[in-house]
Amino acid sequence: MSSQTTAPVTPAEHRILRRAEVEAKTGFKRAHIYSLMKEGRFPKALRLGVRAVGWDSVEVEQWIADRLNERA
After folding, report:
1. Which residues are within 8 A (CB) of 32 and not within 5 positions of it... i.e. 6 or more apart?
2. Which of 21, 28, 36, 58 could form a disulfide with 41 if both were Cys (CB 3.0 to 4.6 A apart)?
3. What is the pLDDT of residues 2-61, one digit of tens each?
4. Is there a contact between 53 and 46 (Cβ–Cβ < 8 Å)?
5. Nearest to 60, CA basis, from 31, 9, 19, 11
6. Which domain of life is it from (predicted)?
7. Can you tell me the distance from the alpha carbon of 61 to that of 51, in angstroms, rounded to the nearest whole number?
8. Which structural domain, as residue segments, surrounds residue 63?
């Protein structure tokens, strides 16, 4: 009989990811990310300023986790 210990679940820290980070995490380029957003299949960007957007890190991480769970 094996005894497994699990780490306590801590709430994820929200931070704003800029496009380069989102591209690095997903492996997608800008055009594909925006195409998925338009189709409602990727988290929406947050307007940070006139020419700046970012994504909620928790939403992006959850999106990635959901894609990995689809494989199972």
Report:
1. none
2. 36
3. 455 555 556 679 999 999 999 999 999 999 999 999 999 999 999 999 999 999 999 999
4. yes
5. 19
6. Bacteria
7. 24
8. 16-71
Give CA 11 to chain center in angstroms: 15
Inter-residue contact 17 to 53 (CB < 8 Å): no
Helix, strand, or coil here: 16? Answer: strand
Contact 48, 16 (CB under 8 A): yes
Of the candidates 18, 22, 14, 1, the residue with the CA atom closest to the CA atom of residue 53? 18
* Residue 25 near residue 15 (C-beta atoms within 8 A): no
**Token digits for 46?**
């947050």
Please indicate, yes or no, if residue 60 is contained in any of the structural domains.
yes
